[in-house]
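Worked problem 6 (solution included).
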Amino acid sequence: MKHPESFSDILIAEIAELHSAEIQLGLALPTMMQIATSYELALIIDEYLQATEVNARRLDEVQKILVYYPRQKFSDSTTLLIAECEDKYGIPQQTVRDASLIAGLQKINYLKLAIYENTHESSRLLGLPKVHSLLSELLARELGFKKKLYLLALRHKRPAGLLPQATSSRDELASRSA
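Solution. The predicted structure is:
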């Protein structure tokens, strides 16, 4: 791959990586949904799958605006993170497997967020209002999933005894630490 020569080149490369990430995730999520034992996790994965399909279409629009049609190459970063999730499929304890899937999805989400945030700001600085608008929509959707995955992770850890239950008074909290 040749080195970028301009900020536009960087934007185009990152849009291509995002598009690849959305395609790869769209291929991996159906299996993750089948592996999930938590109904709530399966629902969020299904919602994420629907979002990745919309995101890929929006990124197609962005590529048309930028007059860039990439050759299909999978994102190495996304490939590694999906493989890490797939490694967890064989975990026998269901709640641990679900927690591992959630953690893996969070890592993928963080990667995508970093790239969406960068491309969003780059498109603004480069004076590309239509691209900026489309990326605003995608960034907002990805931020929404960050929150959903975070809250789901908290709920999965609490029943497993990894997080304390909410206390109703200072005395209860003090007695736990004593």
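Discussion: The chain is about 75% helix and 0% strand.
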